[in-house]
């Protein structure tokens, strides 16, 4: 294969929530959406970014001395001046306490495949494989396609976890190599989709329809975020899911576990505490969907 280079921010082995069986999930960096509830804020920008955990900082300021761009200032702990930072990682090497880390790394497709291959025996025994997630994996189309093609050549099952906000032509090309699409539908309302995710949903719905019409294996994943993309408006969701021809739905109740990551990135977490309401609504919606003949899971793909 042509050994392309791409940018990822994590590879998670033994994953059980990103498709069937035991999987390796490869998280690609970069996303065209900006969902207000995003659980992976470090995935959104394609740039390499510094994360700073103040609670680990010893205050000796080795990082300041190491930064050639004067992108770190002493404060109570330190402040990273993100507009000056190029993600070189020298401060991370200099920090003795692990208070700094870089989100993102450039890797070749063959390096990714080498890690994927380590768990081949588990994929075989569990019906698992690889899931390419993000961020938005189609944000790096050539890199993603080369990985998918390589999985197909090696007989490893591959899934794509996507927001669907990409060129249809790229999705269409990937259909030849992907065994499963985990397709996010963040809201049936385009107005709310634009307000909370940064873009309208028309293009996403059209791509989803194209995928389903072409007979692909698709699970539609809906985040349940009460007060944002969900109230009790089950009927509007059901109507659109039925019209599109979706059969398998995965409901993902909102949680606040990503809150600290925003702080590490120097960003504000704009979500309120939602508590158990997300799960209760997801369970009620699940019952309503099952009554209409949909296959539903709550809380991840099992
Ligand atoms: S990653 Fe490089 S440029 Fe950014 S703060 Fe650290 S040393 Fe400075
Ligand atoms: S599409 Fe996914 S990765 Fe992108 S901003 Fe939304 S939740 Fe985050």
UniProtKB/TrEMBL annotation:
UniProt keywords, alphabetically: 4Fe-4S, Iron, Iron-sulfur, Lyase, Metal-binding, Oxidoreductase, Pyruvate, S-adenosyl-L-methionine
Names of the cofactor(s): [4Fe-4S] cluster
Keyword check for Oxidoreductase: yes
InterPro entries, A to Z: 4Fe4S_Fe-S-bd (IPR017896), 4Fe4S_Fe_S_CS (IPR017900), BssD/PflA/YjjW (IPR040074), Organic_radical-activating (IPR034457), Organic_radical_activase (IPR012839), Radical_activat_CS (IPR001989), rSAM (IPR007197), rSAM_sf (IPR058240)
Molecular function terms from GO: 4 iron, 4 sulfur cluster binding; lyase activity; metal ion binding; oxidoreductase activity
Radical SAM core domain mapped to chain residues: 17-295
Domain 4Fe-4S ferredoxin-type: 76-105
Pfam families documented for this protein: Fer4 (PF00037), Radical_SAM (PF04055)
Protein name per the record: Pyruvate formate-lyase 2 activating enzyme (PflC)
Originating species: Archaeoglobus fulgidus
């Amino acid at each position: 294969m042509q050994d392309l280079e791409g940018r990822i921010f994590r590879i998670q082995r033994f994953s059980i929530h990103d498709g069937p069986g035991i999987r390796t999930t490869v998280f690609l960096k970069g996303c065209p959406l900006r969902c207000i509830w995003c659980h992976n804020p470090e995935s959104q920008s394609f740039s390499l970014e510094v994360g700073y955990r103040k609670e680990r900082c010893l205050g000796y300021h080795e990082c300041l001395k190491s930064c050639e761009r004067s992108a770190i200032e002493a404060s109570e702990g330190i402040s990273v001046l993100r507009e000056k930072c190029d993600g070189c990682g020298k401060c991370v090497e200099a920090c003795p306490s692990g208070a700094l880390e870089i989100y993102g790394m450039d890797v070749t497709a063959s390096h990714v495949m080498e890690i994927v291959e380590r768990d081949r025996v588990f994929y075989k025994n569990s019906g698992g494989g690889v899931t390419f997630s993000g961020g938005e994996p189609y944000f790096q189309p050539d890199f993603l396609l080369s990985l998918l093609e390589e999985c197909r050549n090696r007989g490893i099952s591959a899934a794509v976890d996507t927001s669907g906000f990409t060129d249809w032509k790229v999705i269409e090309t990937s259909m030849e190599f992907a065994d499963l699409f985990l397709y996010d539908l963040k809201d049936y309302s385009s107005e709310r989709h634009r307000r909370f995710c940064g873009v309208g949903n028309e293009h996403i719905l059209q791509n989803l329809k194209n995928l389903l019409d072409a007979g692909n294996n698709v699970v539609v994943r809906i985040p349940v975020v009460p007060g944002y993309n969900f109230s009790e408006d089950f009927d509007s969701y059901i109507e659109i899911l039925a019209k599109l021809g979706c059969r398998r739905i995965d409901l993902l109740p909102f949680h606040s576990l990503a809150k600290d990551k925003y702080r590490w990135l120097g960003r504000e977490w704009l979500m309120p505490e939602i508590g158990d309401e997300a799960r209760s609504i997801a369970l009620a919606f699940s019952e309503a969907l099952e009554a209409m003949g949909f296959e539903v899971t709550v809380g991840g793909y099992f």
